[in-house]
Fold:
Amino acid sequence: MKNIIGSTAGLEEGGKGLRFDVLNSDGEKIPAFVIHFDYQYFAYLNRCGHIAVQLDYMPGEFFSDDGRSLICATHGAEYAPDSGACLGGPCFGVGLEPLSIVIHEGEIVLEQSGYTVA
Ligand code: FES
Structure:
């Protein structure tokens, strides 16, 4: 089965992210997102390293004002867009969980990683 998340069309560099859901091996639905940064695409579970809440203050709004980090709307933890590493704030070294994706003919595809697209 092909795990298609969506299209790269409309995913602007440093712009709004694409929200989607994955299922883990227990069938639990978990929110996730893809962003476009530095000419690449990166996907993460939408779950802060501080408390397990979603990051975006408005649906799809993940980037800080300067576009150099992803920021949690709840207490301001900041993450590196290209690795999910905690850069500062109350994530205390706990990064975002990355999801492995590939781009195939303009489609963003989730690679086998213990998750499937819901
Ligand atoms: S819940 Fe994200 S910084 Fe606290």
User: Anything to note?
Assistant: The mean pLDDT is 96. Residues 20 and 32 are 5 Å apart (CA to CA).
